Structure formats: C-alpha cells, structure tokens
C-alpha cells in the first residue's frame, strides 16, 4: 500500500508539472491571438529550427570576384580597338590621298560623315543596353570631328577662323549633351579637354589674348557648374587644372601680356569663392581648391604686376576674406568653411605687408601676425588655422633672430624693437596655451614655451648689457654681463620660491652654475686679477646666500 501511495503522489505531481509547463508555453506566445495546438507545435518546431543545433554558426562573407571577362571585353576592348581602328583609318586615308583618289574637300566630307556615323552607332549601342561601347563611340565622334575641322582649317584652308571656332565649339557642346543624357563623366572630361584645345587649333596671325583669356575663363565656369550639378568630381579638378595650363601656355606664347593672363587666374579665384556660398554635394572639393587657387593668384600677380597693384589686390583679398569669415562665423551651416577663408585672409595680409614694408621690419609683422593667427585658430577651433599661425610665427622667429643676434648696436633701433616684439609674443603664446589648453600635451608645451622665453631673455639681456657697456673696459664688460646673469638667476630662483614652483628654482640654480662656467671658461683668461677676485667673491657670496634661502624654505 505504501508503494501504491507513492506512485499515486508521483503521478499527481507529474500532472501538475505538465499543467505548469503548458501555462508557461502559452504565456510566451502572442496574447492577442491564441494559437491552436497544431499551430503551437509548428511554432515550437520553427523556434527549434532557428535556434537549434548551431545557434552560433556564422555565415561566411563572400567577396565578389573580379569579372575579368566583363572588364576586358566590355570596358577595355572597345577602347583599345577603337584606337586601332582610328590608326587603320588614318593609314588608309593617307594611302588614298597619296594615290590621288581623294581631294582635300572630299577628305573633309568623309571626316564629318565618319563623325556622324560614330554618333549614330553610339546611340544604337545605347539603345541596345551597351553603355560602355556607346560612350566610346560618342567620344570618338568628338575627336574625329575636331581633327577634321583642324584639317579643313589649318591644313587645307577650306574654312576661316570664325567657322572653325564655331564648329569646334558646337562639338564641345555636343559632348556635354552626350555626357548629360548618358550620365557619363568621361565624356564630359573629353569635352572639357577639347574645349580648352580649341584656341590652339586655330590658325590666326593676330590672336587676341583678351578673347583667349575670356573664352578659357568662361569655359572653366561652365564646366565647373556642370561638374557641381552632376557631382563629377574628376571633371571639377580637371577643369581647374586645364585653365591654369592653358593660361600658362598663353603667357609663354603671347609675351608681354602676362597681366591679362593674371586676371584670368584672379577670375578663377573669385568664381571658386562664390561657389562655396551655395550648398553643393562636392563642397569639400571646392574648399580644397580654394587655397591652391589663392596661391596661384599670388604667384601670377607677383610675376605680372608691380608692387602697388599687387598690394592692392592682396589687401582687397584680405578685406574680402576677413568679412566673409566674420559672416560665416555667425552662420552655423558655414562654420566648416571658416578655416579656409581665415587662412587665405591671414596669408593675404602677410603678403601685402611683406611686400610693402622694409625688409628689416618684416620679422616684426610676421611675429605679430603669426601670434594673432594662432589665437584666431584657437578661437574658431580650426587646426588648419593653428598650423598656419604657427608657421608664420616660426618664420618670423627665424628671420628676427637672424637679424638681431650679434647685431644690436643701439637701444633705440629696429633690432631692439624686434627683441621686444619677440619676447612679448612669446608671452602671448604662453597666455594662449594656458587659456585654451591643448589636451594632455598642454603642460609639456607650456614648459617648452617657458624655457624658450627664458633662453631668449638671457640672450636679450646679454645683448643689451654689451650695448650699454660697449665703451667700458674689457674687465667692466665681463663683470657687467656676469652680474646681469647672476641677477637674472636670482630673480628666477626668487620667483620659484615665492610661487612654490620647483622647476623655476632648479632653472635658476642651473643658470647660476652656467654663470660660473662662463666666468671660468670665458672671463678668467681675459680679465685682470682684481676682476677675477671680484667675480669669484661675488658668485660665492650669492651662492651661499641663495642656499640660505632654501634652508628657510625647508
């Protein structure tokens, strides 16, 4: 009986557990639509299938293999063999001409017929869903048409300059139309290159430089707008480079007209500047070309104009870019453009001042402008502007130190002004770094700046002391310089004791030992015995006195 009771209790417990399991399963199913037992079983099977035997199995990511057949047969095959076909046609054409079968007029007609045939074949291939072959044929039609026009005008003299220019220009427009409808950047790049070449294909005895510069500038503007609208980045860069190349060739051909060519470069700079005011999808590329365009403008105007026009243009660019920068700072959507406009404004002012001022005062301007540009870089949080400011400042330091070290002859001199500006701007740099900070490197940079200004002041103090004592005896000069160094070290140590700055105290002690080394190595061989006694007694007394101050500190 006891065994039967245990079995009965166990069966009852199993029944209760089955009910609890059933309730738990039902609670995990969606409550808004109860499932039938059959549907519940299907759901459980699906769940086991999805999260069953291999839940952590990863699917392999297969990289698409390069379809060499497509790349060679559809992309490069028509391009290569179109070139082969053109060579064969040229040779056949030459053979027919040499045999006297084709006159000059017939050659031109055949060339234009071939151009039309290529256009017809290109559109047929486009309809047949062969876009790559279509682009090759349409691009070839432009090349054949321009070669035919060049032959008719330059070789056979069948058409005059205006007619040749008009035909070539229409071919360029045709290339742009092809590019627009087929959404093809290579066709647009071909049309751009062809458009730049048009003036060079005309046989004119008196070419107008004004017309050439105007035409090339308008062509650049047109293709730049087309590139921006169609998001053709390569076309945008190509149009920029081709204009510079064309203008450079014009300047070599038409000697004496460099001033007109420089205006074309200036127009390109202004157009690029205006383009950044509009919202485009290739804005970062427009901004990248803004600074190189400015640099090329500076070079062209420096080579082509005298100092007065150059300074006027630089001053105008500085004022314009400074105003634009101020306006951009007020517009959140334009703040990413501030580093570029601010950089150009800084360098425009730099070039204007460097070209206007005397060479002796250039370093003063560079130091002040470099410090100001660096401060602006921190204010607008622009790394590019910080780098530009630092480069300008370092250039000013190099030029200034080369000018002043060993050349200070009078207290009231340009060299004295350079020293004052150098020390003052170094102090400003310390203030800038302390205020804005540079992350985890702030402390190290401040230490470098403090040691830099300390060393610069030591050299400055030596130069000033030598100027003041230049009419004194040798003994007095050596005593004066050593006394100045000792006084400097005492001030540094005193500052360190007052502000509780250990590095300052150690620097002062090092300077005191440096003074002792100077006395031993430089002063002793050239001063009298009395001067030696004064130097050593003075140094010894001051060293012991300073040591006493350190005991007081402890």
From TrEMBL:
Pfam families: DUF2339. It comes from the Bacteria. Keywords: Membrane, Transmembrane, Transmembrane helix. The chain crosses the membrane at residues 71-93, 105-123, 135-156, 162-180, 187-203, 209-228, 235-254, 260-278, 287-303, 309-329, 338-356, 362-380, 387-405, 411-433, 445-464, 476-497, 504-521, 533-551. Gene3D superfamilies: Helix hairpin bin (1.10.287.510). PANTHER family: BLL2549 PROTEIN. This is Predicted membrane protein. It comes from Paenibacillus catalpae. The lineage of its organism: Bacteria, Bacillati, Bacillota, Bacilli, Bacillales.
């Amino acid at each position: 009986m006891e065994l039967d009771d245990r079995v009965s209790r166990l069966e009852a417990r199993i029944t209760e557990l089955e009910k609890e399991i059933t309730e738990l399963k039902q609670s995990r199913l969606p409550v808004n639509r109860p499932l039938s037992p059959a549907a519940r079983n299907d759901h459980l099977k699906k769940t086991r299938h999805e999260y069953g035997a291999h839940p952590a199995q990863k699917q392999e990511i297969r990289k698409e293999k390069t379809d060499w057949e497509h790349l060679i047969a559809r992309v490069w095959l028509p391009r290569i063999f179109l070139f082969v076909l053109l060579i064969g046609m040229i040779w056949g054409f030459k053979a027919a001409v040499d045999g006297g079968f084709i006159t000059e007029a017939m050659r031109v007609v055949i060339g234009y017929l071939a151009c039309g045939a290529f256009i017809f074949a290109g559109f047929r291939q486009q309809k047949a869903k062969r876009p790559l072959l279509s682009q090759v044929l349409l691009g070839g039609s432009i090349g054949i048409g321009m070669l035919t026009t060049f032959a008719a005008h330059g070789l056979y003299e069948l058409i005059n300059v205006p007619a040749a220019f008009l035909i070539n220009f229409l071919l360029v427009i045709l290339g742009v139309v092809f590019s627009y409808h087929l959404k093809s950047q290579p066709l647009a790049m071909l049309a751009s290159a062809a458009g730049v070449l048009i003036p060079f294909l005309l046989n004119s005895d008196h070419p107008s430089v004004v017309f050439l510069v105007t035409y090339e500038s308008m062509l650049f503007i047109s293709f730049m707008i087309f590139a921006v609208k169609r998001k053709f980045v390569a076309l945008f860069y190509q149009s920029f480079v081709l204009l510079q190349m064309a203008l450079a060739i014009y300047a070599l051909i038409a000697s004496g007209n460099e001033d007109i060519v420089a205006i074309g470069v200036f127009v390109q700079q202004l157009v690029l500047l205006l383009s950044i005011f509009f919202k485009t999808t290739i804005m970062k590329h427009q901004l990248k070309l803004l600074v190189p365009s400015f640099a090329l403008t500076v070079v062209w105007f420096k080579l082509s104009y005298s100092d007065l026009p150059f300074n006027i243009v630089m001053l105008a660019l500085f004022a314009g870019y400074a105003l634009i920068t101020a306006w951009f700072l007020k517009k959140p959507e334009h703040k990413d453009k501030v580093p570029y406009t601010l950089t150009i404004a800084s360098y425009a002012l730099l070039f204007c001042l460097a070209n206007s001022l005397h060479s002796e005062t250039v370093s003063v301007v560079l130091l002040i402008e470099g410090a100001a540009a660096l401060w602006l870089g921190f204010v607008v949080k622009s790394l590019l502007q910080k780098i530009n400011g630092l480069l300008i400042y370092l250039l000013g330091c190099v030029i200034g130190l080369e000018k002043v070290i060993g050349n200070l002859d009078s207290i009231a001199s340009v060299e004295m002004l350079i020293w004052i500006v150098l020390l003052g701007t170094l102090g400003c740099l310390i203030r800038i770094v302390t205020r804005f900070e540079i992350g985890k490197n702030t402390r190290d940079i401040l230490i470098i700046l403090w040691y830099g200004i300390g060393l610069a002041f030591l050299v400055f103090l030596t130069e000033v002391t030598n100027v003041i004592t230049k009419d004194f005896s040798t003994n007095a000069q050596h005593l004066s310089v050593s006394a100045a160094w000792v006084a400097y070290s005492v001030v540094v140590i005193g500052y360190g004791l007052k502000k509780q700055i250990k590095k300052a105290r150690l620097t002062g002690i090092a300077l005191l030992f440096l003074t002792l080394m100077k006395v031993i190595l430089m002063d002793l061989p050239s001063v009298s015995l009395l001067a030696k006694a004064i130097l050593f007694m003075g140094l010894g007394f001051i060293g012991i006195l300073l040591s006493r101050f350190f005991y007081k500190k402890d």
